[in-house]
Amino acid sequence: MIDIESLSRKIKRNCDISDSHNWGSYSLCGLLLRLRELYRSEKMVKPWESIAHSDVGEWISAREALWSELKDREFEDIPLNGHVYGPYETDRVNALLEREGLIYGAGIGLYRKPSFFLADLISREQKNGCIVFMAGGEYARDLADYPAMVQGKTIFVRTEMVKQLLWGRFEEMRANRSKSTLRCAFSYYGVHAGEEPSENLYARISQIALCEAETYFYHELGEVFEGERMGGEWKVLLASLPHGRAEVFTRSVKDVLSDTTENGMLRHIIRSRNAGSLGFYLVFLTGFRKLIFPEIFDAFQVFAETGDWEKIDVARRTGYKNTAVYGEKILALYRTGLTGSMLSERIEQEILSRLL
After folding, report:
1. Distance CA 163, CA 149 (A)
2. pTM of this prediction?
C-alpha cells in the first residue's frame, strides 16, 4: 500500500520549489488569483464558501517565507516502494500509482515553469495514439492551473483545474465584468448570471467541467501532432528564447496551431456540435492568441445568430493557415543563426510589432 500522505508531502515539496523559482513570472493580479485558489485547495475551502482576508494574508506571508527558504533548492527525487524516481519519471511512477487509483503528472509549462500534481485517477485510456489519464481530486499541486498537460504522447487532463477555471468565470459573470460571449457560453449549459453560488450550482458546473475536460484533451492532442509536424527544431528554438513577449508569442502560435489543426480542439468542437464548448473556447482565447486568431470572433457572431457551424470551420481553416505563416517566419529567423535575446528582438521587430 502506498502512503498517500507521505507521497503528497514529497510532491508538494517540489511544487513549492517550483513556485519559489517562478512566482515572479506572473503579474501581480495573476499571482494573487493563483494564491487564492491554492489556499482554497490546501485548506479544502469550497468555492462557494467565503474566506477571511486575514486568514489568506497570514497564509500568503507564510508561503512567501517558505519560498525564500526554498529559492535555491533543486527538485527532490520521489521515494516509492523502496525505489527512488526522478521528478519527471511519470511513466515509472504511474506504473505503481495506477494500481492504487492515483495519477502523478509533471511537465514544463509557460515561462518554462515546472509543474507537478498528484490526484485520484478517474480513467486511463488509449486515444489517437496517446495514453490519456483523466485526473480527479488533487492531493498536491503548484500555482500553475493548467487544465491539461502533455509529456511525450501521454496526456493528463485535470478535471479539478477545469472546475476551477469555470467557477472563476462564473464569478466574473456574476460581478457583471463579463462580455456577452461568457454569458452565451454558460447559457448553452443552462447557467445564468443571476444564480447564487451554492453547492448545487457547483455540482452543475462540475458536470460542465467533465464535458469540457474532453475538449482540453484535443488541445493536447493537437500539440502532439503539431509538435511532430514542426519537429525538434521548434523545441530548441523555444528553449533558447528568454522570458518575455517573444517567448509568449511563440508559444501562442503553437497553441493556436494545436487548436485549429485537423486533430485539435476546435475541430472536435465542430464535429460534436457543442455550442457551449465553442463559447468557452472564445472566452479563454486571450492575450496573443486572440490577436493571432481574430477570424473566430466574427464567425462566432454569425454562429450565435444562425447556428452555422460551417462558418466556424471556415474560420478554423483560415486561422490555421494564417498562424502557420507566423510559425514559418519564426523558424526562418531561427535558421539564420539567431538565438536567445537576438532572436527574441527580431521576432518582436519583424512579426509582433506588426500584429499589435
Report:
1. 16
2. 0.92
